[in-house]
Specification:
It is built from 4 helices and 15 strands. The chain is an alpha+beta fold. It folds into 3 domains: 111 residues, Elongation Factor Tu (Ef-tu), domain 3, CATH 2.40.30; 54 residues, OB fold (Dihydrolipoamide Acetyltransferase, E2P) (Beta Barrel); 129 residues, Orthogonal Bundle (Helix Hairpins), CATH 1.10.287. The strands form 3 sheets. The chain has a 6-stranded antiparallel barrel. Strands 3-10-8-5 form a 4-stranded antiparallel beta sheet, with no helix packed on it. A 4-stranded antiparallel beta sheet has the order 7-6-4-9, with no helix packed on it. It starts with a helix and ends with a strand.
Length: 391
Amino acid sequence: MNTNRNHSHEATATAAFDTSDSRPAVKTPMTLRRPNPNSDGEIPTGSPPNTGAAQKRRRPMLAAAATLIVSLAAGVYYFRFVLPYESTDNAFIEGNVIPMASQVPGRVAELLVKDNQAVKQGEVILKIDPRDYEAGLAQARADLAVAHSRVEQAKAQVNASEAKVAQAQATVVAAAAENQRAADDLKRYESVESSAVSRSAFDLAQSQARAASANLEAARSQTKAAEAEVALSQAGVETASAAVQQAEARLQQAELNLSYTQVTAPEDGRVTRRVVEQGAYIQPGQSLMAIVPRHYWVIANFKEIQLTHMRFGQPVEVVVDAYPDRTFKGHVDSIQNGAGARFSLFPPENATGNYIKVVQRVPVKILLDDLPGNDLALDPGMSVVPKVRVK
């Protein structure tokens, strides 16, 4: 079998170097033939080496190396960027929403704000027709003036009553002196013999003594009446003073009612849900609009199994769905003492019926460290994705 292959090779070489016409023969390419499977496996001279087997041996090694690199990268990513964090998409922005209402009834005279307008604390946003309350304020001021005059009148009455007391006391003194003189005259008439004094003179002395005693008692009674009148006048002063305080209170209420005709913003924020229009008649407590201050936080409803390592103060990265290219920094402020289902309108009654365990969610409050400027609108209810670093 080898002899035939050598003869073929020699014939090919002879044809390549034929010199019969003294000219070099044209070189013909060497014929490359596949090795005969029935031969003894020798490769003809000039054939390329067989690299297929080596490549087949390298492929599993490359695949194993690639798998190892990917596994290492995945492990590094998991232990560095997944394992130390807890995140959830069940999270929303929360904030204060202040409903605005009037404290007095009336017709809206001026509406000074529009929907979504920014307002400052103390800025007037609505005016109610003040004419009724201005009239009430004038009436309250007049009532206060009348109350003050009644106080002065009561004080003057006290002075008059005290003067009557002094007059009554002087009358008592005079009556007492007259009573003493009459009593002395009666004693003198009684000390002499009856023949020395006429009966008529003696009777006159007795009558004068009784009259003087009666006058003294009358003067004393008038003094007591005058003193009682003084006490009554002093009580009138106290009553008038109380009326003054009542009038002052009504005046203050009238001033407050007049001030309530101007509804002002309690905090800086934006107007939202405005339902009032100019010219409408409103009642106290009626919802007019709402003010949303720029004070936000995040309520994230984590699964209870995610709270194992969550603690106060841990850093948080917050991504808002509306601004996916922005990341806001924050920290865990507090964890609610109870699952959200426990405070729902109809809490579950696990002690009745069949029980199926459901993983509960617990609200976690997250405060933002860097609030955005006015160019970004962060409003209550917007969806966010917080990521808490727990390890």
